[in-house]
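Protocol step 4 of 5: obtain the predicted structure for the target chain.
Materials: sequence only (see below). No template structures provided, no constraints applied. The aim of this step is simply to have a reference model before the mutagenesis design in step 5. Sequence pasted as it appears in the construct record:
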Amino acid sequence: MSRRVTYPAVLSDLENPEGEYTVTFPDVPGAISEGNGVAEATANGALALGLILFDQYILPNATAVRKVQAAYPGTVVREISVDLDRAQQESQPVAH
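Step 4 output (C-alpha cells):
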C-alpha cells in the first residue's frame, strides 16, 4: 500500500531566464525546486515534495487549486502527486 499525496504547486518563470521555472508548494514551505520547462520543473518538484514529507507523521492540508491560482496570478498552478513510501526508499543511502 502506498502513501500517495497531492499538493498544488506554483511554477513561476517571472524572475527566471526564459523557460526556467521555480517550483514552490504553498502548503509545504520547505519544498522548493526548479527546472528547465514545465515537465522538468514538475518532476523536480515531485522529488522535493517527497523528500520533505516522507517522514512527516502529520501532513499539511492541501489548498484547493482554484484558491492557489487566485493567489498566484501569472504562474502555472498544477497538482503534483508523490508516493511517500517510494520517496523514503529513494532517500536511503546507498551501501558501498
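Step 4 remarks: The CA atoms of residues 8 and 79 lie 4 Å apart. The first strand starts at residue 4 and ends at 12.
Proceed to step 5.
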